[in-house]
Amino acid sequence: MSDRQVPVVASPFRATITPPGSKSLTNRALVLAALANGPCELSNVLFADDTRVMLDGLKKLGFDVEIDEPNHRMRVVG
Q1: pLDDT at residue 47 above 80?
Q2: Using CA of residue 32, residue 38, residue 42, residue 45, what is the dihedral sign?
Q3: First vs last Cα of the chain: how many Å apart?
Q4: Residue 35, SS3?
Q5: Cβ within 8 Å of residue 41, ≥6 positions away
């Protein structure tokens, strides 16, 4: 990997950063969404084998789960 220099910033600035999805964070968010009272919209989710098992488990427990895999989003009604 080549070195990359970052220029010094002279004044405050704003930035929005979206880190890559994480299967462990996705599974934790799914559990919290299921425990919530009402619908939860999750974005930037990572669809991995572990995530699919968690989603299957939530569905079998009767939770309403909507999956939008191409856009890395899901909705869980707790």
Answers
A1: yes
A2: positive
A3: 45
A4: helix
A5: 73, 74, 75
